[in-house]
C-alpha cells in the first residue's frame, strides 16, 4: 500500500496533476468537486481510479483531455497542458460512439484523418494501421462490417482500437465496459490489458468495479466523497498482461477487499457526518450540475 501518488517504477512521467481544484456551477453558487488532487502516471503505467458516485472521477478524466477547466492547479501531458483538439489522448466512453454509416476500418481511421496535412498518414498507411489494431483487439476479418452488425463488446473493441490509432500519449477510459455482460466484460478487460502491454501506453481508467480496477491497474487510487481528493493509493503486484487466472485468483480478491474496506470506511464517515447535520432522514442528493467546459466545446 502506498499513500504517495507516485508511479511504482522510475518510469518517465507522462501525466502529472498538481493541486487540482474544480467546481460545478449551480443556481445557488459554486459546488466544489475536486479538492487538491495530485497524481502522476508513468510511461506504460495503468492507474485505476475508484470512488463514490459524484466524487469527481469523470471530471478528473476530462481535465486530462483538456475538456474540463480547473479553478486552480495544473495538468500536464509530457510537460505540456492538454489540448482538447489534439490527438495526445485517446478517450473511450461508457457507450460505443462509432459512426453507424462507416465501416469498422473507417471508424478506426477517423483520428488519423483529422491530423494536420503535414502529419496525416496516406490512405494505405491508415488502412494498415487500422488492420494492425483490429488484429490486436481480436477483430481480424471484421474491417468491412458496420457497427450495427457487431455485438456491444465488439463495438467497444473497435472504440478501443480507434482511441489507440493515433498513438496517443495516454489512454483515458470512463467506465468503458459497464454496458456489457459479466463474461464479455472480463474478456474485454483481458483484451485491454494485453493491448496496453503490447503498446506500452499509459492509461487512466475510471471505474466503479473494484475487481476491474485491481485487475487492470498497476495502482488503484481511491477518491473521497465530493469534493474529491485521493485518500489512498494501493499498489498491485502482478505482471501484465494479466490472465484469467489472475482475474479470479486469491491475490486479486485480497487487494479488492482492502480497496473496498477503504471505500466503505470513507462512506461510513460521510454518512455519520450527514446524520449529525441533518434532522430526520438523510437528505437526497440532487442531480449533479455540469462543469464549465473549455472554450470551443459543446456542453452536451
UniProtKB/TrEMBL annotation:
<dbReference type="InterPro" id="IPR050166">
    <property type="entry name" value="ABC_transporter_ATP-bind"/>
</dbReference>
<dbReference type="InterPro" id="IPR027417">
    <property type="entry name" value="P-loop_NTPase"/>
</dbReference>
<dbReference type="InterPro" id="IPR003439">
    <property type="entry name" value="ABC_transporter-like_ATP-bd"/>
</dbReference>
<feature type="domain" description="ABC transporter">
    <location>
        <begin position="17"/>
        <end position="250"/>
    </location>
</feature>
<dbReference type="InterPro" id="IPR017871">
    <property type="entry name" value="ABC_transporter-like_CS"/>
</dbReference>
<feature type="region of interest" description="Disordered">
    <location>
        <begin position="268"/>
        <end position="300"/>
    </location>
</feature>
<keyword id="KW-0547">Nucleotide-binding</keyword>
<keyword id="KW-0813">Transport</keyword>
<protein>
    <submittedName>
        <fullName>ABC transporter ATP-binding protein</fullName>
    </submittedName>
</protein>
<keyword id="KW-0067">ATP-binding</keyword>
<dbReference type="GO" id="GO:0005524">
    <property type="term" value="F:ATP binding"/>
</dbReference>
<dbReference type="Pfam" id="PF00005">
    <property type="entry name" value="ABC_tran"/>
</dbReference>
<dbReference type="InterPro" id="IPR003593">
    <property type="entry name" value="AAA+_ATPase"/>
</dbReference>
